[in-house]
Design brief:
- The protein is mostly beta strands.
- The protein is built from one helix and eight strands.
- It has one helix at residues 2-16, and strands at 30-40, 57-58, 63-67, 73-78, 84-90, 92-98, 111-115, 119-127.
- The longest helix has 15 residues, at 2-16.
- The radius of gyration is 24 Å and the shape is elongated.
């Protein structure tokens, strides 16, 4: 009888607190924000037609930070070997800021994005300094 009573008391407590015991907290949906970091030029002279071996190279290991409208870092990613990165963000306005990479000149300009659906065209072009 004691076990039945305890089980019944637990069921009644759960029902009194909101029914099925599931959390009533809602979580905002997130969307994938992805992009590509690359470095170029890789050849000192451009040719016509362009030499395929002189195309920008993917930049792996670059750190990319995403700032909210208050300037706080809300996400950070490191680019994969193929230069790609992805972060998950809720809807809102953000700034994508590429961090310096040793051996390259400066950083790409910060990119302002508005997330309402998936964003997949963040292009971060680093300068190799080759002229």
């Amino acid at each position: 009888m004691g076990i039945r009573f305890s089980a019944l008391a637990i069921v009644m407590l759960i029902a009194a607190c909101g029914g099925d015991g599931a959390s009533s907290t809602t979580v905002a949906p997130t969307f994938a924000v992805s992009g590509y970091a690359h470095a170029g030029p890789v050849c000192p002279v451009e040719t016509t037609p362009p030499d395929p071996s002189c195309e920008d190279r993917p930049l792996g290991g670059a750190v990319v930070r995403v700032l909210d409208s208050d300037g706080a870092v809300v996400a950070e990613a490191t680019t994969a070997v193929d230069g790609t990165f992805t972060v998950q963000l809720p809807a809102g306005d953000y700034t994508v800021v590429a961090q310096p990479v040793e051996g390259l000149l400066g950083t790409p300009a910060a990119i302002e994005i508005t997330v309402v659906v998936e964003v997949s065209d963040v292009d971060l072009a680093y300068d190799t300094g080759i002229r």
